[in-house]
Design a protein that fits this description.
The chain is mainly beta and 457 residues long. The chain folds into three domains: 85 residues, Orthogonal Bundle (Type 1 dockerin domain), CATH 1.10.1330; 198 residues, no CATH class; 133 residues, Immunoglobulins (Immunoglobulin-like, Sandwich), CATH 2.60.40. It has four helices and 25 strands. The strands form five sheets. Strands 1-13-12-7-6-5-4 form a seven-stranded antiparallel β-sheet, with no helix packed on it. It has a seven-stranded antiparallel β-sheet with strand order 2-14-11-10-9-8-3, with no helix packed on it. Strands 15-23-21-18-19 form a five-stranded mixed β-sheet, with no helix packed on it. The protein is globular, with a radius of gyration of 23 Å. The protein starts with a helix and ends in a 12-residue tail after the last helix.
């Protein structure tokens, strides 16, 4: 063993011992640092505290995502909003209810922050829960500025939908950043749409929180945002006549964009009234640690389970293409809402729900995406689901990143393909060498667990 490899392994082992000690004292932040990138729709930072109700106004929000949202035309600039390190109080034309409390005034910050009570609007971000924010929506919390010509916050009231849209036109350094929050008085729904983002939002925090006890985080310092991404935050309603239950919350990732598949995507703003039963499901993932898509190293095996109240379909493992897409046939499944779960070798599982009923028609019909029929013969209508970011580090494929995975990496560290000690399970980057890149990927996700298997309904 060379001195370099010995010293490096010693450092790795020191990390492992520290990780074990931190886990025993309940301080995983000591291992990962207090502010590590993470993506997880519905992430709750209060998992070890008294579980929140699973429905109603005292429950955590759930967040669903879809592609090809579009920011509306917001003409009314908030006076004084072309500013830097500023907050502004705005009277809303609606009464919006969040976590059971109703508000007619909102405090907006130039750093992509919104709160109905307290909004410190600091330029430095943290993962949620964030101190100082109460009854807050953080659509793109980052160190932004709106102090330039054309910058500022713009609003629109839609009387037909009884909604209030708030748009930020900002910059991150020299990068334009543009996003919109829409609040719906009738349903309490929150929509966030991204127009322009800086480096896929890799320094932003996105989520909602009441305080330190009720938190739903979509992402924190992770490259998870893209133009056209639509996030919808809702609180699950309780069944009529049923008391609000207590228990741990199950987070879900949902995409309900249904379209007619074509090799060339054309986004339009047309509403298609006819529902088309889908014959194939086209899923898309982004594999962490691999070069940007399209790239051959994004071609990785993935398994898929679809489950409804009465049917479970387990698809054989297949390989995503260089752009992260995979396709399965669904012609034998009846229309309806299905839970999905995907798992890749070395990767943590993701899950969510998807509709196989046809085109989604919601409160914003102009956001429906219609794709033309493919010119290929026998082309099938398809449902498309954005599954999102797949986190790596699961060397032993048990859906959690622990010391067991670190031990596999430590034994193979410094070895390449052809060496007897090389272990492909620890090669998370796909470069056929187990090195510091793979160690950093494991460290980033240490202590995380993927979506559990789908339980019977």
């Amino acid at each position: 063993m060379t001195p370099y490899r010995r010293s490096t392994l010693l450092a790795l082992l020191t990390f492992a011992l520290g990780a074990i000690a931190a886990l025993f004292i309940g301080s995983a932040a000591i291992v990962l640092g207090a502010h590590q990138p993470r993506v997880g729709p519905g992430y709750s930072a209060n998992a070890l505290a008294t579980p929140a109700p699973t429905c109603g106004p005292e429950s955590n929000y759930t967040v669903t995502q879809a592609s090809f949202g579009r920011i509306g035309l917001n003409a009314d600039q908030v006076p004084g909003s072309a500013c830097d390190e500023c907050v502004l109080s705005v009277n809303m034309p609606i009464t919006f209810t969040m976590y059971g409390q109703s508000f007619t005034n909102v405090v907006l910050g130039d750093n992509g922050t919104l709160s109905f009570v307290a909004n410190p609007n600091p330029p430095g971000t943290t993962c949620l829960p964030a101190p100082g924010f109460t009854y807050a929506i953080l659509p793109y919390w980052d160190n932004l500025t709106m102090n330039f010509s054309g910058g500022g916050i713009y609003t629109t009231y839609d009387a037909n939908l009884n909604s209030f849209a708030i748009e930020w036109r900002a910059r991150k350094g020299s990068d334009p950043v543009n996003f919109e929050v829409t609040l719906y008085e009738t349903t309490g729904r929150i929509e966030v749409i991204f127009g322009s983002v800086s480096n896929s939002g890799d320094s932003a925090t996105v989520g909602v929180q009441r305080d330190a006890t009720l938190v739903t985080e979509f992402s924190c310092d992770a490259p998870s945002l893209f133009p056209g991404l639509l996030l919808t935050f809702t609180q699950p309603p309780c069944p009529t006549g049923t008391p609000t239950p207590a228990g741990s919350r199950t987070s879900t990732r949902t995409s309900t964009v249904t379209a007619t598949h074509s090799p060339t995507r054309t986004t339009t703003a047309t509403v298609t009234p006819t529902s088309i039963a889908a014959n194939v499901l086209v899923g898309h993932v982004t594999w962490q640690g691999r070069p940007a898509q399209p790239h051959p190293l994004q071609q990785l095996p993935i398994s898929l389970t679809l489950k409804s109240a009465t049917i479970e379909q387990n698809y054989p493992a297949q390989t995503t293409d260089a752009s992260g897409f995979f396709t399965v046939t669904t012609g034998n499944l009846p229309p309806g809402i299905y839970q999905y779960r995907v798992k890749g070798t070395k990767y943590l599982a993701n899950s969510g729900t998807v509709s196989l009923q046809g085109l989604y028609s919601g409160e914003h019909e102009h956001r429906i995406v219609s794709e033309p029929q493919s010119s290929e013969p026998n082309a099938l209508p398809s449902t498309q689901v954005e599954i999102g970011f797949m986190r790596t580090g699961d060397a032993n494929n048990d859906n959690t990143v622990t010391v067991a995975d670190f031990n596999i990496l430590a034994r193979a560290f410094g070895h390449a393909v052809g060496d007897p000690a090389y272990d492909d399970r620890a090669d998370f980057s796909g470069d056929q060498t187990v090195n510091i890149v793979d160690f950093n990927l494991l460290k980033l996700n240490f202590g995380m667990t993927g979506a559990p298997p789908i339980r019977p309904q």
